[in-house]
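User: Could you check the structure of this?
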Amino acid sequence: MKEGNKIGIIGGSGIYQIESGKILKEHKVETPYGSPSDSIFEVEIQGIPCFFLPRHGRTHHLLPSEINFCANIFALKKLGVRYLFSISAVGSLKEDIPPRHFVIPHQFIDWTKGIRRRTFFGERLVGHVSTAMPVDIKLAQLLGEGCQDLLISHNFGGTYICIEGPQFSSIAESKFYKTLGGDIVGMTNLPEAYLAKEAAMQYAALGMVTDFDSWRGLGTPFETILENMKHNTSVAKNLIVNVVKALSANPPAVNRENQGSILTSPSFWSNKHKEIAEILLK
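Assistant: Sure, the predicted structure tokens are below.
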């Protein structure tokens, strides 16, 4: 793995540490966008260095809308992360995607409310990056192969609808999300996935199903959701190890899709703009 092409892991609800990894260093990273959710932990997984960030903080003290997504992605890129795996708990919008099933989505629909900052650009720095394919298929395939090897029930592909939260969906909302073509619903993969594209990071997501959302007409008791989350987390531990090993053995070529994305002339960049561009474009 080349320097500057490191592996990163963002852990969602239930995943606050990499138990199979040895902590090498704790990084407290400041960014032009503020502080990340927590320290970023440099860990070693079977001899492979990785960076891990608990999305909600180690004590799960951040609501989805309180997460500083820009700081999280910027800090990881600043540390040299190029390949990024995102793990999160989700609800199912399909009968054939039951609780304790894993989904590796290829597409996202943003149904948040505009509360979250969703781009690195702005404040007199203008850029546009395509999110037509927000997920890196080769990284997604590694997740799929890892699930197959461990006999984990999973779907390869699908659409993740991101809602604001923190409340779960009403029955009417959940039925509406189904009409949009959603397969799973969650609260945290956006703007995370799109920011990873702006930062030229290869990104893949793993959705771990905890419940059927509410489209069936009844919500799932929260105790059951927590039980399913605990089960999913235990299953994901071995998957993380296997996927990291596979990626390290055969990393895909880096695809810097954000090159040429900034329209504002460098002659008008402030020092802050230069700091941002240096990290995003490298």
